[in-house]
Amino acid sequence: MFGHSTRVSSVMTKVASIARLREGGTTWALGALAGDDAALERLGSALMQHWQPGDRLVVLGNMPGAAGNTPRTLDLMLLLRRRLLARPGAEVEDFVFLRGPQEEIWHKALQLQFALAPLDVLDWMLSRGLAAIIEAYGYSIAEGRIASRNGPRAIARWTSGLRACQAARPGHADLLNALSRAAFSADGRLVFAASGVDPGRPLDGQADAFWWSTQTDSALDEALGKAGNGGWPAIERVVRGTAPSRNVPQDSGRVLTVTRGAPALVGLDAGGNVRERIEA
Asked: How many angstroms separate the CA atoms of 70 and 37, rounded?
């Protein structure tokens, strides 16, 4: 169990990019999409039908990716947010978007000119979803590889073009530049993250653990059970967007992985119990 919520608040003040949800009805958690625009269209339609005043939405990272059309996925995400914000009682703080591995890869791609081994870094990212994102924005991967052999200035010209492609889609840069690292429920009982947490580190020392975790549900559950020296309250439940491919999901315990293959959306009560599960 978490300790007193005031303790959580005092810890969170040190980490401004961690969101705090307000109290209310159902918390909807959207798992990893990996650019699957068709899945988001179906899940968004279902959410519009289920949404009630006081509900909240946490998008658990990995919006871009190789499973579909990333620019259209982000367009649909922005449209869904606008439509839900128009509902009675909805507030801006009810919509939280988290950084996941795919958002981190995109961010690093736009800063490729600062990499020590740019071609190696680019090839690593291309093999992990970046290729599909660049192609969906209509930009050249081949030119990026050539630029990576020709030094920082050439790379900077290429990344400037990549930014221009993103800027041509209204709202995309604003969305991807305003991501939270993680989120807490109002009472501090739940933590929402793209991939996981490191219970052995303090909250302000998580670094990239929120989006690069490789632990299975059972391994993370066990680590959470042994937590206590990390300098922040013990976690009652972690809700994460995705897990390693070898993962065996668990429906009870301290860890809930939302996407287990096809993108999914879950509606949670205050204790993190699943009220509704919708798969694309």
From this structure: 7
Q: Tens digits of per-residue pLDDT, 96-118?
A: 999 999 999 999 999 999 999 99
Specify the DSSP class assigned to residue 246. T
Residues 6+ apart with CB under 8 A from 3: 188, 233, 234
For residue 237, the SS3 value is strand
* Amino acid letter, residue 24: G
| Other CB atoms within 10 Å distance of the CB of residue 93 | 11
What does the pLDDT look like over 5-46, one tens digit per residue? 444 444 444 445 999 999 989 999 999 999 999 999 999 999
Q: What's the token pair of residue 273?
A: 């119990």
| Alpha-carbon span 112 to 86, nearest angstrom | 38
Q: How far apart are CA 268 and CA 210, in angstroms?
A: 20
